[in-house]
Design goal:
mainly alpha; 4 helices; about 55% helix
Amino acid sequence: MANAYHEQMAAALETQVYFADPYSSWQRGLNENTNGLLRQYWPKKTDFKKIPKNEVSAVIVELNNRPRKKLGYKTPANLMAEYMAAIAA
């Protein structure tokens, strides 16, 4: 049943869709890395409904302004600004 749903989604989006296998963290590198970054602020099983939105927003801003080795020590925010400037030109 899941495969039919995946095929419908891929057709609707007109693209290939990839779903990682359950319990296969190595197939979800970006997701697992992001989870690790979030664990620096909140422990596993944190109920985010109890975290004030402004606290979550502050962490998002902090993470987006944190230089990343993978990005040549640029920040995600800088790269997004560069990208938006390039498409606006």
